[in-house]
Amino acid sequence: MFMRKTLAVVALAVPLALVACGGEKQEAPAAAPATTQTAAPGVAAGGAAAKGSASIGGKISFAGTAPAPEKIKVSADPYCQKEHKDGLERKVVDVKDGGLKDVFVYVKSGVTGTYPPPTEAVELDQTGCMYKPHIVALQVGQPLKIKNDDETLHNIHPRPAVNQEFNVGQARKGMEVTKTFDKKEVMIPVGCDVHPWMRSFISVLDHPFFAVTDEDGKYEIKGLPAGEYEVEAVHEKLKSQMGKITVKDGEKATLDLSYKG
Ligand SMILES: [Cu+2]
User: Fold this and answer.
1) What pLDDT, on a 0 to 100 scale, did the predictor assign at position 50?
2) Taking the model in full, what pTM does it have?
3) From ligand 1's centre to the CA of 179, what distance in Å?
4) CB atoms < 10 A from the CB of 250, how many?
5) Which residue of 92, 123, 176, 232 has the fewest CB atoms within a 10 Å radius of its CB?
6) How far, in Å, from the CA of 126 to the mean position of ligand 1?
7) pLDDT confidence of residue 52
8) How far is the CA of 8 from the centre of ligand 1 (A)?
């Protein structure tokens, strides 16, 4: 331990000494690789894959009759009751003009290269005794900022299959916590042990090619390199749908998928 410390001090002292002496033009070791490395085609310097110019988009539809919305009583918590005087209504299968909302659509296979996670956080808010958004998606290692916008106690309790489980309480409005996930996993269920109706799903991928359908069932996955891809649409209750598509550079390909009721 003592030896190691001594060595570290010596190592630090060398560059400092060089700076102190002025004139010497020696490159720091960390700066050297970036200038000499030749990137492979389609791969940016530093080993990260370059984003492409193709995109896949379309409509995820639901054929049939959607189940009636669930009625949820929130009277157990006076704060939630105040927010929702007539209780809550939850549409697990949320359909508008045949379009299915809150489907997680992602490229399941065909992606090559590595995509470092963005440094900006994805947010999961607890507001009005509900999670917002309902379907959360981010990359492995990307920060997830979880915050409480309610004047009541919530706890965030994801139950992953391969990632680390956690359970964090947030007693007051304004509380925040930031978490990351280190493995890819699709649709991790998240619940609040105080309010059993609260439900959210977090999906974690090792690339940025994913989207969540809007209220019309529309989605778009942008920035894909040209290639052949397998796309999966995942809904919290319905059986997943798969599609295959080939896209060229600069092209916007359409892939519609349909769920049966
Ligand atoms: Cu809660």
Assistant:
1) 72
2) 0.81
3) 18
4) 10
5) 176
6) 7
7) 94
8) 48
pLDDT of residue 259: 94
Question: 166 C-alpha to center of ligand 1: Å?
Answer: 15
According to DSSP, the residues that pair with 107 across neighbouring strands are: 231
Find the 86 Cα to ligand 1 centroid distance in Å.
18
Residue ranges in the chain whose pLDDT is less than 70: 1-48
158 exposure class (CB count in 10 Å sphere: 0-12, 13-18, 19+): buried
Whether residue 61 contacts residue 217, with contact meaning beta carbons closer than 8 Å, is answered with yes
User: What pLDDT is recorded for position 31?
Assistant: 38
CA of 198 to the centre of ligand 1 (A): 6
User: What is the greatest pairwise CA distance in the chain?
Assistant: 78
The closest of 249, 248, 240, 256 to 98, measured between CA atoms, is 256
Domains of the chain plus CATH, in order, are 54-65+96-113+209-261 (2.60.40.1120), 116-206 (2.60.40.420)
Q: Identify residues whose C-beta is under 5 A from ligand 1, the ion.
A: 154, 192, 194-195, 198
CA of 219 to the centre of ligand 1 (A): 29
Question: What's the token pair of residue 221?
Answer: 């996955």
State the distance from the centre of ligand 1 to the C-alpha of 160, rounded, in angstroms: 18
